[in-house]
Design a protein that fits this description.
Layout lengths: L2 H6 L6 E10 L3 E4 L6 E7 L2 E5 L5 E3 L4 E4 L5 E4 L7 E2 H7 L2 E3 L5 E5 L5 E10 L7 H5 L4 E3 L1 H6 L3 H14 L4 H21 L8 H7 L1 H12 L7 H7 L4 H12 L3 H18 L5 H7 L5 H12 L3 H5 L1
Helix pairs in contact: 5-6, 7-10, 9-10, 12-13
Length: 307
Amino acid sequence: MDLLSEVLSHYQAQDANTGTFSLRGDWCFYAQQMEGPVVRVSTGAPYQIVLQGRSPVNVSSGDVVFLPQGDPHWIATRLDLPAVHLGDWVAKTGMRERGERPLVVSMGESGPLTKLFTAIVSYGPRQKNTLLQILPPLIHLSATEVSDVSSLVSTLEMLIAESVNHEPGWRISVARGVDLLLTYLVRGWLETDDAKQQQWLKGLSDAKVSQAILLMHRYPERAWRLETLAAAVGLSRARFSERFQATTGASPMAFLMRYRMEMAAHYLRHDGYRIGEIAHLVGYDSDKSFSRAFKAWAGVVPSDYRH
């Protein structure tokens, strides 16, 4: 299995909240920190998106915007307008709920129309998801780049149709569709010029680092030490540590610990595993040592996290 498949295989969306926004004329909204990654797909009139401290990004019809960490941001046709808090506006004006979800919201009666399909995805604790944390805060794929990624367009169309049609089982269908979407979005981003400058891509393209990460992912239960990982990929301990840190931004053992905790969280969210079994699966000899490590990482003991 290739490294990207190994990385993505352990991420499964728990839920996805969706909405369709029909916006006419000029507008400016501020969206606060979200609990999970945000995907926005637009058609019609263009708009801009900007994150704090960054330059505005122009978004055209058919483009996809992906915010892996769900960072606060502004979306607007005119950024010089006073920003309206998006959450407050949805709660107070123009909202028509179709069942529990999705939201269908409209604003304005004249002027150019921008339609935004939005999905806010839950993958569990945002700050504990290594993949989402190491991606850039904003990924923008143009309509051309979107069309170049096999199956991305059809996956987007399926997500929007499932959400809008609101058929029985739509929420689980959308959540599984988002898992596919994440794969295609990351794949599309990896093909952009911007991605070629990112450490994560360098890590994927570094054969020794990739080999080490694959070993961690495939055999998290092994009693890995820095020297055994270095030996497994044919490097000295010092050279391996330096190279791994340079390409991933983390030491090998810190990277392994985070991955083990993410795997443990995944097992805890799915019934059928006792805590002792989970401890063994992620490389701990005792429940106590595992519980201490998990609490240091998650802030709660495994039994509390499960409930």
